[in-house]
Amino acid sequence: MDSPVLPLTVPDPADATELSCDVLVIGGGTAGTMAALTAAERGANVLLLEKAHVRHSGALAMGMDGVNNAVVPGRAEPDDYVAEITRANDGLVDQSTVRQTATRGFGMVQRLESYGVKFEKDEHGEYAVRQVHRSGSYVLPMPEGKDVKKVLYRQLRRREMRERIRIENRVMPVRVLTHPEDGRAVGAAGFHTRTGEFVVVRAGAVILATGPCGRLGLPASGYLYGTYENPTNAGDGYAMAYHAGAALTGIECFQINPLIKDYNGPACAYVANPFGGYQVNRHGERFVESDYWSGQMMAEFAAELASDRAPVYLKLSHLPEETIGAVESILHTTERPTRGTFHEGRGHDYRTHDIEMHISEIGLCGGHSASGVRVDAHARTTVPRLYAAGDLASVPHNYMIGAFVFGDLAGEDASRYTAYEGELDREQLAAAHELVYRPLRHPEGPPQPQVEYKLRRFVNDYVAPPKTGAKLSLAVEAFDRMSQEIAGMGARSAHELMRCAEVSFIRDCAEMAARASLARTESRWGLYHERLDHPERDDSGWLHHLDLRKSPSGAMEFTARPVEQYLVPVPEFAPPGGPERHLGEVDLVPVATAGPRDTAPAARPHTDAPAPVEVPAVAPPHPRLLRLLSLVEDSPDLDALGPYLDDRDPAVRAAAVTALGETAPTGTGPVLAARLRDDAPLVRAAASAALRELVEVLPAEPELGAGLREALAVPDTAVRSAALEVLRALRLGDAGLYGGALADTSVEVRVQAVRALVSVDAVAELAVAAADPAREVRVAVARGLAAVRNPSPEPLGPLLDDTDPLVRGAALAALAGTGCPADYATRAEAALGDPAWQVRSGAATALRAAPAGPAVPALAKALADANADVRKAAVLSLLVHRADPEARTALAGASDDPDADVRAYAARAGR
């Protein structure tokens, strides 16, 4: 008979579990894991606290399809990136922080790659950076982005790291502890989210890496956890930094994103745009004028949604089948695995339906807008020995790479300090204890979901833009009232205590957002801070950071801080300099409030309770699987995993292969290659995935190469494709091997063979593949002939006469990379009259490499093409020829084109 579960009781503060460390890292997501690794590598004893489990926590655990801000040498310049972020944030940046990401980001990409994170590369092993915005090529796809968190966890569990990094999962800090005399950070107080025990930590330095406040506004669905951002990010770090005395900045600059209508996930233009997708209104017109995904772009997006040209779509239906399949393979696995199910449930398909888009709820996020804890170029906050990194820190548009960079900076700087051994402030401990456990004193109080829903509904009603002083003042009054309701929430379990503490963080962030929005009496950042009562941007008075602090009396007070002098000049903005303006507390706008209602609302009609749903019994997990999962935590070697890899049960073998991919001990490569020949499809699939994931860290040893060659005979398309991909990436094959794979029965394998032939510059073999019966292969050959190290236009000749328009279009576009001599330029000019727009677009692209004499007149005529993508290709080619006066005249004429992309690129002729 089961023993009864005893109710949770309020623990005595004197019974707290006490921990000590040199560096305390709060949050085990993107920035936190990197901070812990760097601090440990520099000799510090690190304690990593995570309120969930580090293996699966943080926004990164939800999957990542690519890096938005990779400044790769040869493809982008740091100064250009700094200037672009300055423009995207309307001039309000500390360029020294943005420049850290710009200059250190590529080194971080290489560091992550050494851990096993896979970034997309071309056939020669160069980074396949894409241009998504109209200026700058910074987007670096991650084909196996769903596994990044697993790779980081593997690093944390390396034996040498385990000696330095102590991980405490299910521990949630609620307050940073500071020294009562000098205010420096000396630790934190919190509790265990499973047992409820009180936990106190002494530390030499504290790094906050708790992510954004994604659970601020209420999604259109009304579901508390259906947020655009990871819903576990409830503003914990914002509140802890504020109560520790740190300055926060830009809190009035909200995060608002485009998303899929009725599905709180990104529409993923970053993935779709390089494949040919784009955002349009219901007439199919591109309407976005802004060059960068910013508040201004969101303002244009919102205006289109509010017009008779709505709805707004991410257009994919015009793309060929193979391209749509490639987009699906990314969007339905890496970024949000549920989105394929969502579309299927509606009977929608990218081939027949474009993706309806909408706008997310508001949130606070430094990494995607600008609101966060104020930090300098070393991730230091204004509180000594307190650091902030990732989406919590105010480094505008910092994204994932910036989170890693600032986690690294914080870990490096904090590693100088050793554990604090003095007494901890009793008043601070008592306040933290009260915050955590007060819901246990009145378990019958309002439940957390009810109170949180109400709080966030007020956020939507009064704080979400467009903003007014009256609405923001009503918001402040509502949040003041709700302090008492929040203090009265009831809880019975440690999990409910965690949720109640999160509501207190959300309330703090909501009040900060409302008061900061009141204090900035102008409009800036487009939709992010649109004040209807102050509609103009005021650079003379407000090209200032708005800093927020907790005053000695406990009130929120503000300072207008001049923008730091730019390291990279941006002509549109001129920081005024001068002294800070202390604004003090913000004044509320007088507003009328409604009195109580005359009568109570009518009781809801009684309805019969629905019949209980019968849940089918689930078989218990296999005992050997449980033992294997336990073993993985200790980073086992091959000998320990051997019995599981040879288990008679395919499920156990597959789990062992997955464990091998997570731990990657010496000798992993050949073992995985051998498992490609396993009898069970489940095991082969696991081995294929692990090899692709680990390709950057596996040594290119002959035994691995031999195993992969053997796998090319396996009657499993996915295995043969994976084997070819890894052979190519590790340079373990040759033209003969890859050329033989062109006879494979699978189109997927033959495409991989083409990529492999490009990697060894096997032009003769590629020319043979130009006669392949599959269109996808011939398109890959056309692109590949332009990607070899010494490309020549002659081998493209047969493909220019191909019967398929997509192949002809690809071959013509490839001429831009191989060179377009006079005879081919004549063919490209003729192709501008082809019935297929893809061919006309390819022809316009080809003329980019042709002599200006024949190219410019033909391109000028193409500016009248009915298809916007053809006109866009013509403009981009004319920009190459802009030294020609006729080209400049044609570009000037395109400045009023009805398509936003064409207009934007044409405008560059004057720069």
Describe this structure in words.
The chain is of the alpha+beta class and 911 residues long. Helices cover 43% and strands 11% of the residues. The chain has 35 helices and 19 strands. The strands form 4 sheets. Strands 1, 2, 5, 6, 7, 8 and 16 form a 7-stranded mixed sheet that branches. A 5-stranded antiparallel sheet has the order 15-9-17-18-19. A hairpin with a 6-residue loop joins strand 6 (171-178) and strand 7. Helix 26 (763-769) packs antiparallel against helix 27 (775-787) and helix 27 packs parallel to helix 29 (805-818). The longest helix has 26 residues, at 494-519. The N and C termini lie far apart (80 Å). It holds the Pfam family HEAT_2. This is Fumarate reductase/succinate dehydrogenase flavoprotein subunit. Keywords: Flavoprotein, Oxidoreductase.
Topology readout:
Layout: E1 17-26, H1 30-41, E2 46-50, E3 66-67, H2 78-88, H3 95-115, E4 140-141, H4 148-156, H5 159-162, E5 165-169, E6 171-178, E7 185-192, E8 198-208, H6 236-243, E9 248-249, E10 258-260, E11 263-266, H7 269-272, E12 278-281, H8 295-305, E13 312-315, H9 321-335, H10 339-345, E14 355-359, E15 372-373, E16 386-388, H11 399-414, H12 426-437, H13 448-463, H14 469-487, H15 494-519, H16 539-542, E17 544-550, E18 556-562, E19 581-584, H17 623-632, H18 638-645, H19 650-663, H20 668-675, H21 681-694, H22 702-711, H23 717-729, H24 735-740, H25 747-759, H26 763-769, H27 775-787, H28 797-800, H29 805-818, H30 822-831, H31 837-846, H32 852-862, H33 868-880, H34 885-893, H35 900-906
Parallel strand pairs: 1-2, 1-8, 2-5, 8-16
Antiparallel strand pairs: 3-4, 6-7, 7-8, 9-15, 9-17, 10-11, 10-14, 12-13, 13-14, 17-18, 18-19
Helix pairs in contact: 1-4, 1-11, 2-3, 3-11, 6-15, 13-14, 13-15, 14-15, 17-19, 18-19, 19-21, 20-21, 20-22, 21-23, 22-23, 23-25, 25-27, 26-27, 27-29, 29-31, 30-31, 30-32, 31-33, 32-33, 32-34, 33-35
